[in-house]
Specification:
single chain; 159 residues; Aminopeptidase; 4 helices; 7 strands; binds coenzyme A
């Protein structure tokens, strides 16, 4: 299930952020600030489900956050800033569902395209975005702290 993130999701999102992005991760404080509604246009979504390792349990299990996405939807400019899925839950369509919802929200705000940056060495993310209709717009050399180039991708959003 995809739903807007709530303040209580902060620790789970911050943990996924650290696991997915390592030294590029947002600080916990930044994650909590975004969830607190203090950043204009910030939209956080979470994907919840039964984690793989508990799916065979005979006991009832609580659903948990298995992925999240953060976007900046400010006026008609839409940027996908983060999307990450727990390693055990990948290749099951979770990120696709999150992205679809971000695109819907962006269209509702009259955005005509969705922009993002991805590390050029992030093969999984590059393949994901290519499969979801993004195309390369630009490259930013030495964009990341370790000197890696960022690829700027865009996807047109039909109204
Ligand atoms: C990139 C990421 C978000 C994809 O999440 P996901 O839930 O596994 O993606 P989906 O299951 O919706 O994948 C949809 C399609 O994207 C492509 N794709 C996703 N991961 C891929 C991989 N590792 N290798 C090749 N193609 C991949 C495939 O076409 C896939 O369809 P398929 O499984 O039918 O082949 C996930 O790998 C992740 O969290 N990575 C770490 C964080 C990150 O790098 N985020 C992006 C930063 S810009």
């Amino acid at each position: 299930m995809i739903r807007p993130a709530e303040a209580d999701d902060g620790p789970a999102i911050a943990a996924l952020e650290r696991a997915a992005f390592g030294s590029d991760a947002w600080s916990d404080a930044l994650v909590f600030e975004g969830l607190g509604g203090q950043i204009p246009g910030a939209l956080y979504l979470v994907a919840t489900g039964d984690p793989v390792e508990r799916r065979s349990s005979v006991e009832p299990v609580e659903t948990t956050v298995v992925g999240y996405a953060a976007a900046s939807l400010f006026a008609d400019v839409a940027e996908l800033q983060r999307i990450a899925v727990a390693p055990t839950e990948r290749r099951a369509g979770v990120a696709s569902a999150l992205l679809e919802r971000i695109e819907e929200e962006a269209r509702l705000r009259y955005s005509e395209r969705l922009l993002l940056e991805v590390r050029e060495d992030n093969a999984a993310a590059c393949a994901f975005y290519a499969a979801r209709g993004f195309r390369e717009l630009d490259r930013r050399p030495r964009y990341y702290a370790d000197g890696t180039t960022a690829v700027v991708l865009a996807k047109d959003l039909p109204s």
